[in-house]
Task: structure prediction
Amino acid sequence: LLGLRALSKDNIKVATFLIGFLSLAGAATKVTYEWRLKARSENRQKWINQMRETLALLITNIPSPRDFPNERDRKTKVYIEQHGKLELLMNPSEKDHRALMALIRHIYGYDDVPIDDIPRKELGIATLLPSNPEHQITLKSQLIRLSNVALKREWERVKRIQ
Result:
């Protein structure tokens, strides 16, 4: 009888230890998981902010047919600097990202990229000339709208991570 009581006390101690250990391991796992989610969310938000800033610069510096030559040169320089950055920020597997890049190249007059043919046709911009003031208004508003769609979708992804 004494042996059974001692054995059951040992069993209780082992069970208590295991429950405590598993609780601690579970809490540690949860904290690690939440920390990783937070880090991923913060990094994605920084990425979205970089995209937003770059798009804003490109939208602000869209060349106008009324620009003086020095202004056009400055805007071309902005395009060259920011376009490369945006290309690296964008995900080429996302349809709206590819369309956005095609639209920007078209607006800035760099529309001789064959991979842009499909997005240009889908966007209906193949016949819109950036040198035409009326077309330019349409192209700019389409760029703003498409930028909003892409940024909104990315923001929704951030919210799902959190």
Q: What stands out?
A: The chain has a mean pLDDT of 83.
